[in-house]
Amino acid sequence: MTSYCDDVRHRSSSVLVRRLLRFVLSSITITAAAAAAVSAGVIATAGVAVVSTDDLVRDARCLAKCYRQISSEKPKCYSGCMDERWIKPGECPVGDDDVVSLDRPCLEQCASDDSCHSEYKCCRHSCGVTCQPPVGLADSPGLPNVPRVIAVSDSGKALAVEWTQPTSGVAAAGHVTYVLQERHHVGAEYVPERMTVWTTVIRTDRTREHLRQLYAPGRWFQFRVAAINENGTRGYSAPSKQFFVHIEPHINPPGLPENLTVSSLKWSAGGKYQQCLLSWSPPDFSVIPVRKYKVFISVRDGPHVYQRRHIVPADILSFPIKKLNANTEYFLQVQAISEFGRKRLTGRKASTTLKTKGKKLLNSKKIKELKLVNIKNIDNLNSDLVNVRISWSPVVRPLLLSKKIVYTLSWSPKDCDDKSKALRAKTKMAYFDLLSLNPQCKYLIVVSTKLNGSKYVGSFTFDTPTL
C-alpha cells in the first residue's frame, strides 16, 4: 500500500513537472507568438507589447457610430468615440490552466480591449495577459453578419470585388461600413505559402469596389472583408477563392535601374587598394517585380577585358566594390532581373565609369645615420672585387607591432666602367653586406621601408678603393 507521504511526494512532483513544462513551452514559443503578434498588428518590445494605433476596425466603428450625426457634430462625435474605452463584444476563450497554448506565451501584452487589434480582446489566463480572438461572437447581439466575397473580376484596367451585405434586421441597428483586405503573390501557379500578409485596401460603405491600384498582371489575389457597425464586428470573412490576373504571353523585362552613382571612393586599410559604393534606384516600371540585380565590374588590361559579376537581392540597392587598383578606369553596370515561372526576364544594363585615384603618397621620413662601416678585399688572390658593409639607425617599431620591419635596399654603380643594372635586396637587420663590388667605382645606395602610413628613405654614395 502506498503511504500518505509517498502520495504527497507524487502529487508535488506532478505539479512541479507541469510548471516546468509550462515554462519550457512558453520559452520555446515566445518567438512564434511574437511573430504572430506582429502580423496581427501587435509589436513586442522588450517583453512589453505595443499595439499599433492604426486600427481600422476601431476607426470604422466610430465612423459608423457618428454616421447619422449632422456634419458640424461629426468631428466631436468621432473624437469622443476614439478616446472612449471600448469593451469589445464576445468572451475570452477559456483554456486549461495546466497546458500552455502556442498562441498564449507568458506576456503582459495588454491592459484592456483597446490595446488589442481588430476584434481581439484582452484576456487573462494562467500564463499572462494577451490579445486573443474572442468566442461567442455569433451570439452577440447588434453585430452585423460576417460578409462573404461573392465575386472577383478583371475589367482590364481594375479588379472588381463584390461581397454580400448584412440582413435587413441587423442593418437596421445602425450604419454598416466595410474594411477590405488583400494578399497576393507573383507566379504562373498558385502557391499558398508564397502569399503576402493581409493588407488593408480600402474602407468603404459600399459592397462593390473597383480597385485600379491593385491591377497587376501575373499575380494571384485573395480578398477578405469585415462588416463593422457601432457595436463592433464579428471578424473577417473567409478568404475568397484565389483569382489570377491575366498576363500576356510576351512579358516585357524590367526597365533600366535608375540613378546609378558611385560614392565613398577611398583607400582601404593598408593603402594598397581602393574601394567605393555603387548605388542605384529600382526601375521606373516593371510588369513583374524585380527578383534580383546583377552587378558587373569590368576593367581592361592591355588587349584583355576582365569582368567580375555579383548577385544582389531585390531589396538591396547598393553594392560595395573592394580591391580597386589605383589609377585605373573601371566600367560598372547594373541589371534588373525578374522571374515568372520558368521565364527569366533580364532588363537592359545601366552603366557608369569610375576612374580611381593615383597611387597614395606616403608621408616621407628620413632613415638616419646611413653610413659605410667596413670595406674588405675578397680573400682571393685572383680577385680584385670588394665587399662592403653599410648600416643605419633602426626605425623605431611600436611595441604592439609583432612583425619585424623589412628594409628594401637598392645599389647601382655610377661613374665607372661597370654597366650592370641596379640590384635589390631585403633585410630585417639594420645593416647589410654588399658583396663583389668593383674597385674604383662610385655606388649609389638607397634604403627604404614603410611603417604606419609613412615611408622612410635614406641614400648616400661612396667610392670603392683602388686595389
TrEMBL record:
InterPro entries: Anosmin-1, Elafin-like_sf, FN3_dom, FN3_sf, Ig-like_fold, WAP_dom
Protein transport listed as a keyword: no
Highest taxon listed in the record's lineage: Eukaryota
Transmembrane as UniProt keyword: yes
GO molecular function: peptidase inhibitor activity
Record's GO cellular component terms: cell surface; extracellular region
Domain Fibronectin type-III: 256-359
Domain WAP: 85-135
UniProt-listed Pfam families: WAP
Keywords from the named record: Membrane, Transmembrane, Transmembrane helix
GO BP terms, alphabetized: neuron differentiation
Transmembrane annotation, as ranges: 20-51
PROSITE patterns with a match to the protein in the record: FN3 (PS50853), WAP (PS51390)
Name of the protein: Fibronectin type III,WAP-type 'four-disulfide core' domain,Immunoglobulin-like fold
